[in-house]
Amino acid sequence: MKDISELLKSLVAQSPFSPRPERPNPFATLLGGSLLNPTLGSPNPFGTLLDRSLLLPRRKAFISYHHEIDQGWADSLGETYGDRYELFYDSSLDDEVDSDDPKYVDRVIREDWVIGTSITIVLCGSQTYKRRYIDWEIRSTLFHEHALLGIRLPTAMTNAAGQVIVPHRFNDNYWSGYAHWMTWPVSGDALLAGIEVAEAKSAQASLIRNARRKMRYNLP
Fold first, then answer.
1. How far apart are the C-alpha atoms of 15 and 21, rounded to whole Å?
2. Cα–Cα 20 to 30 A to 85, which of 56, 173, 194, 215?
3. Measured on CA atoms in the order 162, 165, 166, 172, is the torsion positive or negative?
């Protein structure tokens, strides 16, 4: 049997849901956020191929989300999948850093949250794209060349064309082919597949797009 990393790379290359770096970005900008097609990655194209007996040890994940609005979704992800299925460790903090010093916050994100993990999972809800700390967390994730997975929450905001609004920096790396995107997982297998594909994609560090300037303020 192929090595698991080779299997994953093969599956990613064959999946119709995997973005190609050469594909143009047809999405416009709305209210300061970027847009994604919500159908990409929604089915689980891997079925039962990713048997847990073949997997590496549990992934340690940092969960990036809007704490005031999406705490319930973060709790549900951790309780349902992090504990029940033992797919990942949630290393995120319960609350945002209580400080007005941007340098201090940036250091905490970089040193206390992201370092020690291998993947950042961004929960994309209605206001996620407005939060500067989420942009900073994605930026630090890319700086350390960690995997990046976006999960569309049922509350995600869309435009008239049904395009999901996501943080700009995530959008940049989705279209480069580095970040992975999926809808809210309906099973442990679906989340497991998303995490492993994101990890496989992170081996291509040349696809990282992290030159965008950091957000200075939250959007209204």
1. 14
2. 173
3. positive
* CA-to-CA separations, 53 to 2, 49, 70, 78, 185, in angstroms, rounded: 14, 11, 33, 21, 21
- 8 Å CB contact between 117 and 88: no
Residues 129, 169: Cα–Cα separation, whole Å: 9
Contacts of 98 (CB under 8 A, 6+ apart): none
Unique residue bearing structure tokens 């809808």: 183
Could you give the C-alpha distances from 135 to 73, 83, 87, 115, in angstroms and in order?
A: 19, 27, 25, 16
Structure tokens at 206: 């040349």
Q: b vs e for 33-55, b when ≥16 Cβ sit within 10 Å of the residue's Cβ? A: bbbbbbebbeebebeeebeeeee
Q: What is the mean pLDDT of the chain?
A: 75
C-alpha span between 113 and 92 (Å, rounded): 6
Q: What pLDDT is attached to residue 85?
A: 79
pLDDT, tens digit, 9 for 90 and up, residues 84-137: 877 887 766 544 545 455 554 445 544 455 677 899 999 999 999 999 889 989
